[in-house]
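Illustration: NAD(P)-binding domain-containing protein.
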Amino acid sequence: MTKIVVFGASGRAGKQIAAVAEARGHEVLRIGRDPGVQAAGAAAGYDVAVSAVADLSRDPAEFYTEAARALVASGVGRIIVVGVFPLLEASPGVRMVDLPDFPEEGRAFMEGHAAGVRVLAESDADWLVISPVGMFGGTSSGKYRIGTLDPGDELTYEDFALAVVDEIESPTHHHTQIGVASVS
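Result:
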């Protein structure tokens, strides 16, 4: 049994991740979206911390770097962050957010996520960012694939949770960002 703390467990992704982990017999501490919760203190003593949080009232770069620093400082064994698909590569070396037609109004939020990923990348922590390869939606198939960006793909929260918990149980990706899509 793995001890898992899920930050953002009141949101759609976090709720599903916690439910799948509990159904598989893991000990899960669910922490809602309250950005006032101190991640370093709450994650201490856990094997894995899953971060599925956002605070839209704050500057995204400030929020995501602060959250990443707190998770690294916690000393938790593994950090898994729910990412955003525009940070995946649209072509080799080019993220979707870097494309000239990417909507400017979403750029700051995406770059805030990227700033948090840089904090993880500069640390000694065992981390992984798992992102949908397209939009959340569709009907759960109970199957998923790890793959590249395809904004036409869909991913259900249920299938996403399966991918996250499978990675917790059998860690195969480290120090990187991966994309996940549902398989019909």
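Reading the tokens back as a structure: The first strand starts at residue 3 and ends at 7.
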